[in-house]
Amino acid sequence: MRRLGSVAAVGAGLLVLALRPAPAPRSAVAGATVTGKVKFVGKAPANPAIDMTEEPKCKAKYTTTPHEPVVEVNKNGTLANVFVYVKAGLPADAKYPTPTTPVEIDQNACMYHPRVFGIMVGQGLAIKNSDGILHNIKAMGKKNRPFNISQPTTMTTNRSFTTVEVMLPFECNVHGWMHAWAGVLPHPFFAATGADGSFSITGLPAGTYTIEAIHEKYGTQTATVTVTGTGTKTADFTFTAK
Fold first, then answer.
1. Which of 16, 86, 158, 183 shows a CA-CA span of 20 to 30 A to 170?
2. Is residue 20, in this structure, part of any structural domain at all?
3. Longest C-alpha distance within the chain, in Å?
4. Residue 151: which residues within 8 A CB-CB, separation 6 or more?
5. Mean pLDDT throughout 170-192?
6. Confidence of residue 242 (pLDDT cuts 50, 70, 90)
7. Which of 216, 242, 192 is nearest to 38 (CA)?
């Protein structure tokens, strides 16, 4: 009877373990949020017009003359393609799991999509060629090893980065107007503004952080934010036309 009682106790213990929820992945762990918008003040400069006559396949994807989106001011007066990230404040010994899902950058209509993005050290980068024409992707890392790869047709090439670098530039040797920038970081606390100029950085542990916003033409701005628990703090940025 004692043996059966022991077995029953063990079985009950296993049942409790089985019913206990599995630990949540870090991406699902609750934390604080820093959110905001990147505003633009002044008259937006004219973006360079692009002559795609020699690339009719790309030209056919536009109804008007295409322009390189150096300064993309949204209808609500905000700025797109601004990289926002936690520059300082995280524990020096903190480790964050590398995502298994790659970041994707696509060459479509002879433009990079997205133009600005973040990626973690060691995370896969899937470089797509949706145009089906010759592209030559050049990543001009200063801290990461540069690469220069040719994609003559519709295909995907995979790469990754080994070192923190903000920002790492891309260009196409075939089409001089094609540019992109990557923020390579050891943590997942970053975002890039889009069509409404907003950003949201989630899952932050309590602390005081330096948040930096970077734009390819207008440079950098920083803000200091203190967060606690699961609350939300706002950090807005404003870039002025030059």
1. 86
2. no
3. 89
4. 107, 127, 129, 134, 135, 136, 137, 157
5. 98
6. confident
7. 192
Name the one residue in this structure whose structure tokens are 């030059």: 242
- Buried b / exposed e over 41-79, threshold 16 CB at 10 Å, is eeeeeeeeebebeebeebbeeeeeebeebbbbbbeeebb
Alpha-carbon gap, residue 193 to 77, rounded angstroms: 13
The total of other beta-carbon atoms located within 10 Å of residue 88's CB is 11
What token pair was written down for 80?
Answer: 């797109």
Residue 221 inside a domain? The answer is: yes
Q: Is residue 13, in this structure, part of any structural domain at all?
A: no
Domain that holds residue 219: 26-240
How many structural domains is the chain composed of? 1
Instruction: Please report where in the chains the tokens 């920038």 appear, as a residue.
Output: 181
Other Cβ atoms closer than 10 A to 33 = 16
Q: Which pLDDT score is estimated for 6?
A: 43
Query: Any idea what the CATH number is for the domain that residue 131 is in?
Result: 2.60.40.420
The per-residue pLDDT for 29 is 56
Q: Are 121 and 161 in contact (CB under 8 A)?
A: yes
Tell me the C-alpha distance between 219 and 45, whole Å: 15
Distance between terminal CA atoms of the chain? 86
Question: Does residue 15 sit within a domain?
Answer: no
Q: What is the pLDDT of residues 12-55, one digit of tens each?
A: 443 333 344 444 344 445 899 999 999 999 999 999 999 999 99
Tell me if 76 sits within 8 A of 197, measured CB to CB. yes
Please say whether the beta carbons of 106 and 128 come within 8 A.
yes
Q: What are phi and psi of 31, to 5 degrees?
A: -170, -175
Give the whole-angstrom CA distance, residue 49 versus residue 66: 6
